[in-house]
Amino acid sequence: MKGVLERIESPADLKGLTPQERRILAAEIRETILNVVSKTGGHLASNLGTVELTIALHTVWDAPKDIIIFDTGHQAYPHKLLTGRRDQFHTIRQGGGLSGFLRREESPYDVFGAGHAGTSISAALGFAEARDLRGSDEEVVAVIGDSALTAGMALEALNHAGELKANIKVILNDNSMSIAQAVGALSYHLARLRSQPLLHSLEQRAKDFIQHLKVGRKAIEHAAEGLKLGMAHLMSPGEGPVFENLGFTYLGPIDGHNTEELIEIFRAVREMKEPVLVHVVTTKGKGVEYAENDARVFHGVTPFDTGCGKFQKKENGNPTWTSGFSQTLLELAEADERIVAITAAMPDGTGLAAFAERFPERFYDVAIAEQHAVTFAAGLAASGLRPVVAIYSTFLQRAFDQVLHDVCIQHLPVIFCLDRAGLVGDDGATHQGVFDLSYLRLMPGIVIMAPSDLQELADMLLTAVQHDGPIAIRYPRGSCPRPWEKRKPRPIPIGRGRTLREGSDVALVACGSSVITAEQVADMLHVGGISAEVIDARFVKPLDEQRLCAAARKCGRMVVLEENALAGGFGSAVLELLSVEAPECRVWRVGVPDRFMEHDTQQAQRREVGLTAEQVAERVRELTGAPGKRDARKVESPERI
Fold first, then answer.
1. Exposed (0-12), middle (13-18) or buried (19+): which is 31, by Cβ within 10 Å?
2. Tens of pLDDT along 58-75?
3. Do 469 and 508 lie in a common domain?
4. What is the mean pLDDT of residues 393-406?
């Protein structure tokens, strides 16, 4: 006999389920998510917490006619399972498989894509206004959670929706956490709301009230139906005005794991034609003991044992780039009291948890507020401190103007530590860290560094602390390919690269994680009699102009490697230099082409853009005219300057 989940091909199949079948369905969804994510990795705890909520949403509203927008995507795995993607769910985050986030091209039920937090209410308001302009009648629902409501644009959208008195429903999935523990005054306010008695059946409360009146049964039932909507306006527990002052009717708090109550309340809310915020309280990691007990660790996971929650050992036993950053920052902070650290809701992911424990008075978690994080750091720097903003490369994009306007124009000594720079693998297009070199390089006065190993990262951190101006260090996801020699950090002269190997036929110039690839390429070329010079640029801005120009004139050919967009990146900087100083040199750039990189393994993504050592070696053979195995890919012509 088929399970309940096996019978669900679309949300329409939910409409006729019994309460018992819905309970079975919730258990089957959790089991499916657990079994798949334990093998593929992905976002676990948040999705375990939204199972009943998602069942209720799709039972009441009629997607895709009704618009349901999930913020971020951390909470949308149950949605994927209920919208025709059950049989493909095992491919999630795998090359060619389902995305770990919502993608418009993947399903008509994914009406708006997202990977960054706080976008759902703005998008939903756009859908609602478009509906009203064309005179249609679909409902618009935004589901926001994992503390995405602390994002500035989410609050801006609430303010605008309230002003417009838009018919929009916001479901606040409150699990008291973001990725880590939620912080900030708004999170404190929600905690106070959670302490209030849960809102139960509107209809039952209405009937209980009317029973005191001496009228017949039919009149009671008719009046109860009418009072359900009226009572919704009265159910604020006295702490909801923060939303009501923005023009929303507040409903809650509601048990987010009681499917039947959620369905009943959502049905009442659906009839309301005004801005409504429904406060739903859920448990992150619900139904899996180790995920509930440590929801922070099980937010985003690598493969693990479903029995005990133990993670599989990494193939590379070397420390991660994040842990190397974390250890070095602690050591530097011990010796320099000016150092303070800032994260935007990601103390674990960015490696600042240890700093927070050791120096709580010098640590700041600003919640999902990247713009504020940067300008807050600027204020700290202007007051004589050395703020370190530890942030994923993809999230610094959200604070572009603050980096330019508040930090660089004032030449303030803010240190940006960009984790997950380069190709990030299975998180896909929304999380690729391949744009930071391009958008930072255009800012006057900023220094940009990229270490090739953990010792160089340590040296660069010390360099950054001693530098009296804005400075950024970018480093990739995962473990460092080389062991850490772990000596005392030494400052690096600003703009000074290093030559790792002398050569005469071609110069291989790389920055960051691509340096090791360049060394491997040189070894392969040496076997074929090609002499390759290898340069670790270390600085993307300012460039080591003397070193690069000398190599260009000596070799006459140069290959520039980078894990960044070719448009405006490191290779572009080298081309700009050599077009003036060594125009006779032929330059070949290898990096990320002008497209968004979809989810796959990091190695598969490098292969896709031609960044493996074997592919680069073959390109060099093409460039030099040396014999070698031809790559099946079309090899582009080098750029002549």
1. middle
2. 999 999 999 999 998 789
3. no
4. 98
